[in-house]
């Protein structure tokens, strides 16, 4: 039996990682080879035991924060320290890059994952909801005085501060192929943004100052849609959840947002 090894993911890990992705039970399709190569592979680590990949962790490294997007261990390899070893590697990598915070989303009833995260020093911060809907069933709701446009990167930092997003979350998302970053403006000032991937299709993060302007943000995404299907992750915004629910798109899943410090 060989020791557990943590190494960066390679393109040839795609099939195994896609299989492990299903353990997350998000209801989303497995990442295809292109999405794996473009989005996951560059910041994914895998755990290898006896020559086989037993677990993976996909993270987004930002200026001050590392955002854990996926972590999954094969059922047969659970409770053998794979996820803990992946966390140790990613935390060390994030610290080396100057990050100070770690965060992620987890289903509130995922006791195994929550035990791991609390052990890793993360704590509950707020609730998020995912929604799925068809553009054809969601009527357009023009909002007087609010216009949508591609978001100029000059607004990124201002919007990250306004919505409490990790610094550089928009810029790091902008760097991923297929992402379309849209904003909405009132009196020339940005009042919402969405990082939309028309190929997924979905938007994350998606933030608006209130539910009044939110429909304009959805319309700004819709202008770039190539599929009728759409997914959004609404973070810490019950008014936007209520708007979508009233529009016929109730929450599909609830997540708890956990965060913690990377300082030792
Ligand atoms: C959550 C998950 C990634 C943990 O992976 P793992 O490789 O089994 O975790 P580890 O062996 O590294 O465990 C590290 C610690 O986490 C906690 N933990 C992990 N699984 C646990 C369980 N079933 N019950 C209680 N605590 C658990 C323990 O504190 C454990 O330390 P210990 O074994 O010394 O007590 C794994 O259960 C999994 O893949 N689940 C399905 C996918 C998923 O839900 N991913 C998280 C999405 S947010």
Can you describe what's shown?
- The protein has 264 residues and is α+β, with helices and mostly antiparallel strands.
- It has two domains: 5-99, Gcn5-related N-acetyltransferase (GNAT) (Aminopeptidase), CATH 3.40.630; 130-256, 3-Layer(aba) Sandwich (Aminopeptidase).
- The protein is 27% helix and 34% strand.
- The protein has eight helices and twelve strands.
- Strands 1-2-3-4-5-12-6-11-10-9-8-7 form a twelve-stranded mixed β-sheet, with helices on both faces.
- A hairpin with a 4-residue loop joins strand 9 (189-197) and strand 10 (202-208).
- The longest helix has 15 residues, at 82-96.
- The mean pLDDT is 96.
- Bound molecules: coenzyme A.
List keywords for this structure.
264 residues, alpha+beta, Aminopeptidase, 12-stranded mixed sheet, 8 helices, binds coenzyme A
By CATH, the superfamily of the largest domain comes out as: Gcn5-related N-acetyltransferase (GNAT)
**What does the radius of gyration come to?**
19 Å
Q: Which word captures the global form?
A: globular
> What's the architecture of the largest domain in CATH terms?
3-Layer(aba) Sandwich
Query: Counting H and I runs of at least 4 residues, what is the number of helices?
Result: 8
Low-confidence stretches: none
What is the makeup of the main sheet?
12 strands, mixed
Kindly report the spatial arrangement of strands forming the biggest sheet.
1-2-3-4-5-12-6-11-10-9-8-7
Measured by DSSP, the beta-strand proportion falls in 25-35%
In this entry the ligands are: coenzyme A
CATH overall fold name of the largest domain: Aminopeptidase
Q: Name the average pLDDT.
A: 96
Helix content: 25-40%
Structural class: alpha+beta
- Strand runs, count: 12
């Amino acid at each position: 039996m060989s020791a557990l090894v943590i190494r960066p993911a390679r393109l040839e890990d795609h099939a195994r990682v896609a299989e492990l992705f299903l353990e997350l039970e998000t209801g989303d399709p497995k990442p295809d080879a292109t999405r794996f190569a473009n989005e996951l592979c560059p910041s994914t680590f895998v755990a290898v035991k006896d020559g086989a990949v037993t677990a993976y962790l996909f993270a987004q490294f930002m200026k001050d924060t590392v955002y854990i997007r996926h972590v999954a261990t094969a059922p047969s390899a659970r409770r053998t320290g794979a996820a803990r070893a992946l966390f140790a590697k990613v935390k060390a990598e994030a610290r080396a890059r100057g990050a100070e915070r770690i965060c992620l989303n987890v289903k509130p009833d995922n006791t195994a994952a929550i035990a791991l995260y609390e052990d890793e020093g993360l704590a509950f911060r707020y609730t998020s909801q995912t929604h799925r809907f068809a553009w054809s069933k969601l009527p357009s709701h023009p909002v007087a005085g609010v216009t949508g446009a591609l978001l100029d990167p000059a607004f990124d930092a201002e919007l990250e501060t306004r919505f409490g997003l990790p610094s550089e979350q928009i810029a790091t998302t902008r760097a991923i192929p297929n992402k379309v970053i849209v904003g909405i403006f009132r009196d020339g000032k940005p009042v919402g943004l969405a990082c939309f991937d028309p190929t997924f299709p979905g938007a994350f993060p998606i933030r608006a100052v209130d539910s009044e302007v939110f429909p304009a943000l959805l319309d700004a995404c819709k202008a770039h849609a190539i599929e009728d299907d759409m997914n959004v992750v609404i973070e810490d915004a019950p008014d936007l959840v209520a708007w979508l629910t009233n529009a016929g798109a109730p929450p599909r899943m609830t997540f708890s947002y956990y965060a913690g410090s990377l300082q030792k």
